[in-house]
Give the backbone structure.
Amino acid sequence: MVEDKLLIFRFKQGNHEALRQIYDKYKVELLKLSVVLIGNRNTAEDIVHDVFVKFAESADRIKLTGSLKNYLVTSVINRVRNNLRDSNRHREANLEEVDLLTSSERGPHQWAVLSERLTLLSRAMRELPYQQREVISLRMEMDMTFRRIAALQNVSVNTAKGRYRYGIARLRSLLNSEVEK
Amino acid sequence: MKSTDKIKQYFKNAELGIDPDADEKVFADVFQARQKIKENVPAVPENIWRIIMKSPLAKLAAAAVLVIVCVTGVFIFNRTSGIAWAIEQSIEALSKYNAVLVEGSESFPDEDGKLQMRKGKTWAVANENQTKVEKIRIEVEGVPSIITNGSQTWRYDPQTNTVIKNLSYGTAEVWIGRRLLEQLKTFRESGLITKWEVTDGKDSATGKRRIFLSCAWLDERYNGPRSLWMEIDSQSNLLVGLKQWENDNWEGPAQYVAEKITYYENLPDELFEFEIPKGATVIEH
């Protein structure tokens, strides 16, 4: 956390290497979170791309009260929520998204290279209601506390725990033998 | 293993790779976004600039941050004549900086009583006169162990998850910058320091010329016996490395080694605040 504060500080002073270090430190974690949450590699890439661009643009105005990681994770979450809301509005075809996720063809703009396991996980996660997906991803991937997740979802800690429990049960049955490997 | 743990492991093992070409393109976008913002920032009027500069953070921002890495394996000429360096030059150079980050390692006895080394980082800010340490943050193996913000002190023991507040003993007192060399100079002039040798050489990695000061004393009044080996950059005259032994002849492994020293004009206040870990026992003095 201290390292991050120093990195931001140096970045704000115009140290380009600090921006590179922040980018390299968090890109994989954020991409993975985004892929698991949204289930569409291209959209996930766009979201993380936008998060970093926005961060680079607005870093001078950012006053971190918590960790940089939490700030970036929250930025990803907000963008994923906005994207899903817009997608629901436009009723985009889900099947097309699944194809994009599992496609092995690497296009010129492909940034994230998904392992087979991550593809399966993302597909299984898509079967869960979004709120459950969010709790599970933040807990499993980001090691976030239930209290913090509850605050992020604006619900009680018990509700967050309930969503986690139901989500895990469903995920277990969806992944079935995969988790035993 | 519980099924939740298995799913967690599945999550952790679900890998995501990065395509390097695409990665460079994305970073180029991020970098460009930053550059555009910087180009569009209007010039700051001088009077506002002065107000900004009153902020310690802005001062740190404006400070020329100097990082000098002390690389082990220096080539020492081992001669004492013709060295154009005097301790006053380093005292003057160090007085320009009010804050420092020292990265290195210290020895500690393990359960069998054998000495082991552990990595540590120390951020420190001097008081106004640069005579004492005002704020300090000491991290051992990445875990904060002692933090002082000038009015409060926290000591944290991760083994027992215990925080001791406001127990003042044991924190560094003498400022590692100018004050340290001033004291050594005084000790030498008073005859307290019994061994004093200045040599020069080159850093084998960078080829930069270095001055090496070795000194030692026996007197118990000054935490003695102690021996010091200090590495000074001959261009900037700043102290860039230091080793300390608890004997007067540099014998055995050093008790403390400073491998990298970064100088700042100031450091952000946030560095010297401590967040009490969840579930920690707090003992207040």
Summary: The longest helix of chain A spans residues 16-38. Strands of chain A lie at 112-114. Residues 85 and 91 of chain A are 10 Å apart (CA to CA). Chain A touches chain B through 49 residues (CB under 8 Å).
